Amino acid sequence: MKKEDCIFCKIANGEIPSKTLYEDEKFRVILDLGPATKGHALILPKEHFADLYELPEELAGEVMKTAKRMAEKLRDRLGCEGLNLVQNNGELAGQTVFHFHLHLIPRYRADGQKIGWKPGQPAEEELEETRKTITD
Ligand code: AMP
Ligand code: ZN
Asked: In b/e form, how buried is each residue of 39-58, taking b as 16+ CB within 10 angstroms?
């Protein structure tokens, strides 16, 4: 299903032009218009799912297969020396377009970008409590 007024639905389905790198029945891979680095790409499902929680499991697997193939292409064609996969869910996590997408961000020496977090230092008990909360 497509969602009216969703820009990524329109891009994924070709109603709005984009710099397309790859397309098949289920996905379109495009260049990000505000790239972190050269070749920053987005994998968009053609159907509308707001985020990872809505994405069907089977399609999630196919997203990762597409990511692997695209990562190889970006490395081979652009000569990047690393690559980050980034996928934001929810405003709090930095999502700004609410149609599932996976970022592929090629990394180059001295590209000036930083993708990361400040590591915490939880005590063992806290880690164990978290583990239990998640698994029990
Ligand atoms: P996120 O913050 O994870 O939701 O990422 C949204 C990404 O979409 C950002 O990196 C934007 O630069 C990118 N973006 C927004 N609109 C467009 C568009 N029309 N074409 C290509 N990329 C876009
Ligand atoms: Zn959409």
From this structure: bbbbbbbbbbbbbeeebeee
